[in-house]
Amino acid sequence: MATKPAKKKWQEIREILQQMKEDTLREISKTVKNGAETTAVGEPSGDIYDQASSERDRELGLLLGDREREKLHNIDEALLRIDEGEYGLCEECEEEIPLGRLKAMPFARYCVKCKSDLEKLQAQTKRFEEDRTYREIPLGGEEEDA
């Protein structure tokens, strides 16, 4: 259960998170508005290059929208951790996350060491999956005997 001193300790971070949340919501709203205007104003005609460019812009907008939604989710989780008195502790090693890291990345869930270890593990897993996928793809010119 969170105590008032713990909540007060993180008041500056809470304000930073609230501002980030407002900025992120504003950015999402702007992206949605721009996407709607592009769809309404853009003509389906045009050469293949215009259509490809429009499609690329639309995909980029969706990707950025996904990132913004993920950021918003992370901010909400950090605010909840403050309320529950669990903010500022690494979810992996349960050590305190340095204040400098929290000010730079207020929704951080891991200390620098654990985050680095996690990213290395994710990179190794991704590389292993890619290697396995490429091994399963038959090379051209080779006939399989049935």
How would you describe what is shown here?
With 146 residues, the chain is mainly α. It has a domain at 4-87: Four Helix Bundle (Hemerythrin (Met), subunit A) (Up-down Bundle), CATH 1.20.120.910. The chain is built from 5 helices and no strands. The protein has helices spanning 4-9, 11-41, 48-84, 99-104, 112-136. Helix 2 packs antiparallel against helix 3 (48-84). The longest helix is centred in the middle third of the chain and has 37 residues, at 48-84. Mean pLDDT is 80; it is low at 1-5. A zinc finger (dksA C4-type) spans 90-114. Keywords: Metal-binding, Zinc, Zinc-finger. One of its GO terms (molecular function) is zinc ion binding. Residues 85-120 form the Zinc finger DksA/TraR C4-type domain. InterPro entries: DksA_N, DnaK_N, Znf_DskA_TraR, Znf_DskA_TraR_CS.
Total beta-strand segments? 0
Major sheet size, sense and barrel closure: none
Q: Supply the CATH class of one domain.
A: Mainly Alpha
Structural class: mainly alpha
Note the gap between the termini.
66 Å
| Number of helices, where a helix is a run of at least 4 consecutive DSSP H or I residues | 5
In round numbers, the mean pLDDT is 80
Q: What value does the Rg take, in angstroms?
A: 23 Å
Keyword list:
146 residues; Four Helix Bundle (Hemerythrin (Met), subunit A); zinc ion binding; TraR/DksA family transcriptional regulator; mainly alpha; 5 helices; metal-binding
